Amino acid sequence: ANARIGLVGLGVMGANLSLNIAENGFPVAVYNRTGAVTDAFIASAGALSERLVASKTYEELVAALPRPRAVIIMVKAGGPVDAVIEGLAPLMQEGDMIIDAGNADFHDTRRREAALKAQGLNFIGMGVSGGEEGARHGPSIMAGGNPSSYEAIREIIEAIAAKHQGQPCAAHFGPDGAGHFVKTVHNGIEYADMQMIAEVYGILRDGGTERERCAPAQIGHLFEQWNKGPLNSYLVEISGKVLQAFDPETDRPMVEMIVDKAGQKGTGRWTAIEAITLGQSPSAIEAAVAARAWSAAKETRRAGAELFGDLEAEPLPRPSEEVLERALLAAKIIAYDQGFKILSAASEHYDWGIDLASAAEVWREGCIIRSALLDDMASAIREGLPHDQLIFAPRFVEMLRDGAGALRQVVAYAASAGLPVPAFANALAYFDTMRQGRGTTDLIQAQRDFFGAHGFERVDGGAGQHGPWGGAAG
Ligand code: 6PG
């Protein structure tokens, strides 16, 4: 054995992760389905190539590793992961482990973990966030699976992970799919964060009087300023940069040259699907998934613009930049509250024992949703969340009492101006529901009882009660 760990899949993420591992002093045996890619990778690795062991077959890869062997897979989620496992598993021995570092659906991770366990092998589902840069210089890492397997690779994982004040942004969250689920929710929150920033961009670009409308570079400059305040975060930072970039070919703002159809590979959707399955509804995240889906219907939207584009709106005055900033902060807190609630519900359902504060902690650096606010969130969760709600944590109560009015002003403005703000509006609807001691589902219950004799609970006690609906009720 001349390597410490193996890695399959030398795409951008896999290649960068290998270099990161090698740079931290651990020799890596690398394999790619196309051998030429492996050769080219090693040839381009410079001094680090000394710690890279080229493997042209799975047999060579496995032979390069000490026992218990650990092989990271970094290939496209879905079928390709199963194909690699099928090739590797028969060559491995009791106690060896396979680590899937892709964005897997945690249900797949649970299935794979169970299947490999039956063969005496360990399977670690490990979410890795931070894009190419993160993979190369320090991602945020969310692992699941057998804790003793994680212990065996912990030294490597903590060495390559991003650091927050010296603490590695890597943790083990629980058995089987726990790590991939934490990564999935990270991505769901990522979708909401991105969407809410885009909603602000839309209001500044399309809202207000002719004179008030902002060019992308102006909005980018504003985001750059916001990044120095409480909204300090990677996504606000890069949005500022993106909006200030120009297309070298046309000299026009780069964003204006990009077709407004958003892609998605599934993680945001999985967050919403799993939440709904568990009886939750993370409205800001769902809205962000919806906004991407709606955006895909470009031709339909063009036709809609012909039919309805000139519908008169009577816009309120456009909120100031300061109001927009506070609204974004408030909406973000609500979206994160929803994300943490899903983590908590899933953890209970699957018996994972996820430490929510630890999730907030590993998200403080390295990952796409890293932000100053996550440090506050981690502390708030450690202090204990009243009713499991981040929005009820004392420090966030203060922020929301201050920001909710701004959020309301922005949503009201957007509705009056005919500008879609699905994530903002849905975050606000959730917040307003949570601050309403008595809502309107008494009527829903009565309707259900009327047409289906479903029964209701009386305010003065007694479940399974029925109303005086006469013959229509069962
Ligand atoms: C990260 C990102 C990363 C990737 C997502 C994007 O945490 O580093 O989330 O995992 O960019 O797959 O997802 P969509 O393609 O669905 O936007």
TrEMBL record:
Question: What sequence ranges are listed for the domain 6-phosphogluconate dehydrogenase C-terminal?
Answer: 179-470
Q: Which UniProt keywords apply?
A: Gluconate utilization, NADP, Oxidoreductase, Pentose shunt
Sequence positions that bind substrate: 103, 129-131, 186-187, 191, 265, 292, 448, 454
Q: Which Gene3D superfamilies match?
A: 6-Phosphogluconate Dehydrogenase, domain 3, N-(1-d-carboxylethyl)-l-norvaline Dehydrogenase, domain 2, NAD(P)-binding Rossmann-like Domain
**Which residues bind NADP(+) per the record?**
9-14, 32-34, 75-77, 103
The UniProt entry's coiled-coil ranges are none
Q: Where is the active site?
A: 183, 190
Instruction: Return the protein name.
Output: 6-phosphogluconate dehydrogenase, decarboxylating
Q: Lineage, please?
A: Bacteria, Pseudomonadati, Pseudomonadota, Alphaproteobacteria, Rhodobacterales
